[in-house]
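User: quick one - fold this with EPZ bound?
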Amino acid sequence: MEKLVIKGGHPLRGTLAISASKNAALSLMAAAVLPQGVTHLARIPKLRDITTFSHVLRITGAAVTRKDTGLQIDATRVGFPEAPYELVKKMRASFYMLGALLGRCGRARVSLPGGCAWGPRPVNLHLEGLAALGAQIDLEEGYVVAQTPRGGVSGGSYRLEPSSVGATINLLLAASLGRGGTRIENAAIEPDVVVFCEMLSAMGARLAGIGTRTIEIEGVQELKAINFSNCPDRIELGTFMIAAAIAGVPGQPVRLTHAHPDHLGEQFIAAFKETGAGCAIADNEVIVTPPESINPVSIETAIYPGFPTDLQAQWTVLLACANGKATVTDQVYGDRFNHIPELARLGLRANVVGNQVTVYGGSQLSGARVMSTDLRASVSLVLAGMIAQGTTHVGRIYHLDRGYEHLEKKLSQCGIDIRREQYDEFAAPQQN
Ligand code: EPZ
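Assistant: Sure. Structure tokens for the protein plus EPZ:
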């Protein structure tokens, strides 16, 4: 097992480069299953989720190879339309294989995703939506067994309530190769979905309404395998903006490069500026000027362009440093607060009621041993360790490795005292 050991109090200085988007990468990999050919995806981050999904693709018969310039996916021999529980349970976006295999093969046997560190995270919209497009959907022993009519889904219309990133992507994967026309209402408009739609279009899909709440797609007989480049990770960008605000030297700018700032949505940017942190936005970079003191700014998460739920744990750490009380309300996932008890071990004063945490800022955090519970919770523990007095051990960082590329290398190059160590979770603490 691995942990990160962080000695707090070392200021963050200099420049951080933003890696490519994990969530967008997964949807682009799923799209690469559709054509009978070799797709090349540039800017695919080296993350556990990418490795896991590469294994999922290989099971279907695709050849996935990491190149210096990205990921090469040869889908010529895709023919085994299955995604097993053992892999899908590790990474729920593997559920995209349902739409991809229905589009490519006309049939699929894909494990239901199972539980998540928080939830609920249902897939009813995926299943009801695919049925509305003409697929036969059955549930057998924890698997979705699906079949389209000959020639692919016949098309139809379906309204997502609530809007869903995953369901939007899954329906488009199935409908891109088929016979009929499909209309998705209340579609997700997250940047990850827009980039995915741009790739489908470049492959020859007949799409209209990209980036709007109503997407229409006309099924085609085949799609082209292409070269395509992924976008920067908006959640990593937001994470590092928060890191700069709380761990930077007041008045000394921190540069975040290779970014796509407008992918963060205006609500996050507005809330960030309200904290008093300087925030200069250029085309592909953000320059953060840490403030002398941080204003307590309450936020509510929402689907894009609202405040991203994937940044609410990190925002909680920013509020711990603020000069007053504020709240974080998650309107997307009602119980995504597993990080609060761990942050409390570092001295966070907060209490959770329903889908809202109230944070009492201004207390000095102190280093301790804490445990990651999920991807975004784990990075909030790293942020807290950076500003805590003393040493923090963040355990089970396999959660972190799912979504942050070279995190300790990036942070240590900017002055943070952070290192990765092996440890035995069951050994006595003094031995670790
Ligand atoms: C995507 O998950 C992201 N994952 C998540 O990021 C992110 O938190 C989430 O969108 C919300 O922004 C990937 O892109 C791989 P949803 P997804 O379907 O697609 C409800 C991370 O940390 N819903 O948009 O699973 C659901 O309960 C991960 O990088 C249904 O009711 O999210 C939620 O309230 C975590 N029925 C809302 O929709 C369904 O069938 C949004 O979920 C599907 C979803």
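One thing worth noting: Residues 112 and 142 are 6 Å apart (CA to CA).
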